[in-house]
């Protein structure tokens, strides 16, 4: 199998699976239980929290475990809005956000909030000037996706924070870090981020676990009520084995990150090189420079269909993803691909390749060869 | 006094000498449909079927019975001795229960059906007597013989009297299998499952054939159609499902025939393949979801061309229906939501921009001369997959 859909999800590392298996068997106590078994689970969670906070270089009391990226984004935005709605009702975000942000914003709009959606330029980056213009006295929150999940653009969070400080320093900065956590170098503290969401299954950990960083001095109220686990921010019995395995995944990632990032960047370069050499009439949407994630490569093949390519490749046990679904009743076109200037034909023929440490150059050679054959066959039919 | 469920057979009761056969088929299907629910006894009495069961199971039993074709009404009823006092007691009990649920009931009418002509009173006498007693018992109720809020039904049968005031409408129609077997051309759209449902309701036992163009269409598209077949199987019982990849056929047509004829020629191939499958599996007709004029291939000329490719009967129960009415049925039989899922079973790559709307049999035949029809059909059938949907 050649798995190149690592932005959708990743395969768990063997070591992480072993850790999870053994914790399922042994650490089944409820961390809230008073007995020794409960204490053992509590300590294991604490260990994971330590690993994550060490990796992010933040205080462990600033990390809350959740059920994943979507929940983290929801808790952050809804809690911030709940506590600050008296100060103002204006929110700023971009129109290239993940559904968990976009749909939360849509919901807030029905409740009387005003949301500004910033456009992006031909590389998928927001204009700092637009942001400056958008911030006003009513603004309470700026929510930005760190690494875009379709083409891999990295937003300049540092500059964004500078503008916030300049225009209205009370504005909270939430960063959706689902595709940046563990994949690029940055420091939450240096960037001045107030809340930051991340997920386990994008870094070879289990699904159903994620986390939220909340800056120490930020007082947020929960959106779900119950037994006050996670210091009241996220009630509900902890996903003990998931959190333990997540910790393990972060630990291994942290140890190998420099080497792995170099490896995937080289794979990305090699993939572009091979595709450019072997397949005509294409457009590379993700640059190799450090303004893009090394893990994500978006390419458009004119006169093909992304979804048909995907199904051709799955027959060869190769897995990629598309930007849009093939549909006769109005294809839902990706906003970011439109924003970076692709025409409809290019958007239809766009695929996304997302690497991991597990891929190697032989995989890429085989993949590009199959890709070339598929593109040729589809074009034979479509060019008629 | 016991609570039982009664089932009225409607159209079946008219079927003369075949009646016993139809009733037996129906009982078989009722037993099959309700086999997961433990009831105590099922019996026939003078044109109706009765089920004895714990009252707690009535709700789930009636839910299952509603999906059995050939039933007209289902009623929870009280069974008593054929004695006027016992009948009165049952009517009072039933009325009390109904009033508790719906205090808006102000008027009623007693409607008696005496199948046992030896019973001491006539139907009107029973109705009048029970009506009088109910009036005495319930101060707030009045009789209205024209437009009552509630009908109190009394059936006097050979062994017992049955009292009920609720009639839950079932689909009617004929028991599955009593009208033969046919092959439904099913897609992921709204129409074909409805067409299948309508023929099944007339007693036709269904098999399904589905066409796809993988990898130009997705496996999810096929899963969606299987899901639709599964919804149909709630009414029909298990369904044999043939899945045929026609990508090679579409590629050939795409390469060798005029673009605007793509759809109509593909359609002819689907009919040919369906006929082959039907004949081989002893299915006596094809069913399609076509509705006149709905799309280019469903014009009168289009249908003439597709019909010409087969000699087996083709049933098109939706031919004269409007889309809104088809959607209404789809919603009712619970296939609409699944049909509205986004996965396509025909890739837009193969859809002509301007499909021909008035094709002639001769022109299309001439275009098809470029194709090795027989080999293409045979290859598609050789590679088809068969599933049992239940």
From TrEMBL, chain A:
It is an enzyme of class 2 (transferase). Keywords: Iron, Iron-sulfur, Metal-binding, Pyridoxal phosphate, Transferase. One of its GO terms (molecular function) is iron-sulfur cluster binding. Signal peptide: none annotated. It comes from the Bacteria. Residues 2-366 form the Aminotransferase class V domain. Its EC number is 2.8.1.7. Its cofactor is pyridoxal 5'-phosphate. Belongs to the class-V pyridoxal-phosphate-dependent aminotransferase family. NifS/IscS subfamily. This is Cysteine desulfurase IscS.
From TrEMBL, chain B:
GO terms for molecular function: ATP binding; CCA tRNA nucleotidyltransferase activity; tRNA binding; tRNA-uracil-4 sulfurtransferase activity. InterPro entries: Rossmann-like_a/b/a_fold, ThiI_AANH, ThiI_fer, ThiI_N, THUMP_dom, THUMP_ThiI, tRNA_STrfase, tRNA_sulfurtransferase_ThiI. It comes from the Bacteria. It is found in: Cytoplasm. GO terms for cellular component: cytosol. The keyword Glycoprotein does not apply. The keyword tRNA-binding applies. GO terms for biological process: thiamine biosynthetic process; thiamine diphosphate biosynthetic process; thiazole biosynthetic process; tRNA 4-thiouridine biosynthesis. Its main location: cytoplasm. ATP binds at residues 185-186, 210-211, 267, 289, 298. Keywords: ATP-binding, Cytoplasm, Nucleotide-binding, RNA-binding, Thiamine biosynthesis, Transferase, tRNA-binding. Pfam families: ThiI, ThiI_fer, THUMP. Its EC number is 2.8.1.4. It catalyses: [ThiI sulfur-carrier protein]-S-sulfanyl-L-cysteine + a uridine in tRNA + 2 reduced [2Fe-2S]-[ferredoxin] + ATP + H(+) = [ThiI sulfur-carrier protein]-L-cysteine + a 4-thiouridine in tRNA + 2 oxidized [2Fe-2S]-[ferredoxin] + AMP + diphosphate; [ThiS sulfur-carrier protein]-C-terminal Gly-Gly-AMP + S-sulfanyl-L-cysteinyl-[cysteine desulfurase] + AH2 = [ThiS sulfur-carrier protein]-C-terminal-Gly-aminoethanethioate + L-cysteinyl-[cysteine desulfurase] + A + AMP + 2 H(+). Pathway: Cofactor biosynthesis; thiamine diphosphate biosynthesis. It is an enzyme of class 2 (transferase). Residues 59-167 form the THUMP domain. Transmembrane segments: none annotated. PANTHER family: TRNA SULFURTRANSFERASE. Belongs to the ThiI family. NCBIfam families: tRNA uracil 4-sulfurtransferase ThiI (TIGR00342). Catalyzes the ATP-dependent transfer of a sulfur to tRNA to produce 4-thiouridine in position 8 of tRNAs, which functions as a near-UV photosensor. Also catalyzes the transfer of sulfur to the sulfur carrier protein ThiS, forming ThiS-thiocarboxylate. This is a step in the synthesis of thiazole, in the thiamine biosynthesis pathway. The sulfur is donated as persulfide by IscS. This is Probable tRNA sulfurtransferase.
């Amino acid at each position: 199998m050649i798995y190149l859909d690592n932005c959708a999800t990743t395969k768990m590392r063997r070591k992480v699976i072993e850790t999870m298996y053994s914790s399922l068997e042994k650490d089944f106590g409820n961390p809230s239980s008073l007995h020794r078994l409960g204490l053992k689970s509590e300590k294991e969670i604490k260990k994971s929290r330590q690993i994550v906070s060490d990796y992010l270089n933040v205080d462990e009391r600033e990390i809350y475990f959740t059920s994943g990226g979507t929940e983290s984004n929801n808790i952050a935005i809804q809690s911030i809005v709940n506590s600050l709605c008296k100060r103002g009702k204006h929110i700023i975000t971009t129109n290239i956000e993940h559904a968990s942000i976009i749909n939360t914003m849509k919901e807030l709009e029905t409740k009387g909030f005003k949301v500004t959606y910033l456009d992006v330029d031909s590389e998928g980056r927001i204009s700092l000037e637009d942001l400056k213009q958008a911030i006003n006295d009513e603004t309470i929150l700026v929510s930005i996706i760190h690494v875009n999940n379709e083409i891999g653009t990295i937003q300049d969070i540092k500059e964004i924070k500078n503008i916030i400080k300049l225009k209205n320093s009370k504005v909270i900065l939430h960063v959706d870090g689902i595709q940046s956590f563990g994949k690029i170098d940055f420091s939450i503290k240096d960037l001045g981020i107030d809340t930051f969401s991340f997920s386990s299954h994008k870094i070879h950990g289990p699904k159903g676990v994620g986390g939220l960083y909340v800056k120490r001095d930020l007082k947020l109220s929960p959106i779900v009520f119950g037994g006050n686990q996670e210091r009241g921010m996220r009630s509900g019995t902890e996903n003990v084995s998931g959190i333990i395995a997540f910790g393990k995944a972060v630990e291994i990632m942290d140890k190998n990150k420099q080497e792995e990032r170099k490896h995937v960047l080289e794979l990305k370069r090699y993939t572009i090189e091979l595709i450019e050499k072997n397949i005509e009439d294409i457009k590379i949407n993700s640059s190799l420079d450090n303004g893009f994630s090394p893990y994500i490569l978006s390419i458009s093949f004119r006169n093909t269909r992304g979804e048909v390519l995907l199904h051709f490749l799955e027959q060869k046990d190769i897995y990629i993803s598309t930007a849009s679904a093939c549909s006769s009743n109005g294809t839902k076109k990706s906003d970011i691909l439109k924003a970076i200037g692709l025409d409809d034909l290019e958007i239809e023929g766009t695929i996304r390749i997302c690497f991991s440490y597990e891929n190697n150059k032989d995989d890429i050679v085989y993949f590009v060869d199959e890709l070339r054959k598929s593109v040729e066959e589809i074009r034979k039919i479509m060019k008629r | 006094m016991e609570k039982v469920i009664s089932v009225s057979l409607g159209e079946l009761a008219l079927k003369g000498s075949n009646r016993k056969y139809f009733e037996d088929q129906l009982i078989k299907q009722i037993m099959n449909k309700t086999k997961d629910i433990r009831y105590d006894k099922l019996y026939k009495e003078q044109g109706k079927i009765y089920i004895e069961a714990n009252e707690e199971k009535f709700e789930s039993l009636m839910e299952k019975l509603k999906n059995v074709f050939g039933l007209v009404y289902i009623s929870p009823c009280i069974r008593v001795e054929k004695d006027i006092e016992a009948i009165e007691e049952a009517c009072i009990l039933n009325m009390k229960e109904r009033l508790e649920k719906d205090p808006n009931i102000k008027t009623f009418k007693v409607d008696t059906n005496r199948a046992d002509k030896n019973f001491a009173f006539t139907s009107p006498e029973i109705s009048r007597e029970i009506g009088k007693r109910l009036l005495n018992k319930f101060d707030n109720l009045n009789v209205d013989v024209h437009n009552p809020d509630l009908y109190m039904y009394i059936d006097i049968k050979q062994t017992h009297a049955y009292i009920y005031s609720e009639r839950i409408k079932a689909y009617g129609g004929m028991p599955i299998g009593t009208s033969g077997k046919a092959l439904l051309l099913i897609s992921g759209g709204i129409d074909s499952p409805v067409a299948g449902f309508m023929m099944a309701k007339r007693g036709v036992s269904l098999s399904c054939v589905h066409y796809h163009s993988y990898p130009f269409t997705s496996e999810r598209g096929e899963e969606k159609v299987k899901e639709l077949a599964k919804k149909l199987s709630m009414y029909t019982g298990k369904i044999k499902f043939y899945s045929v990849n026609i990508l090679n056929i579409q590629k050939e047509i795409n390469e060798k025939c005029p673009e605007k004829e793509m759809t109509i020629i593909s359609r002819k191939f689907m009919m040919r393949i369906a006929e082959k499958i039907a004949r081989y599996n002893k299915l006596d007709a094809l069913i399609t979801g076509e509705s006149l004029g709905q799309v280019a291939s469903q014009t009168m000329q289009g249908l003439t061309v597709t019909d010409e490719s087969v000699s087996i009967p083709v049933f098109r129960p939706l031919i004269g229906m409007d889309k809104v009415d088809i959607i209404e049925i789809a919603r009712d039989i619970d296939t609409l939501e699944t049909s509205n899922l986004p996965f396509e079973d025909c890739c837009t790559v193969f859809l002509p921009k301007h499909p021909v709307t008035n094709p002639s049999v001769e022109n299309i035949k001439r275009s098809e001369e470029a194709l090795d029809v027989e080999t293409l059909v045979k290859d598609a059938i050789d590679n088809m997959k068969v599933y049992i949907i239940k």
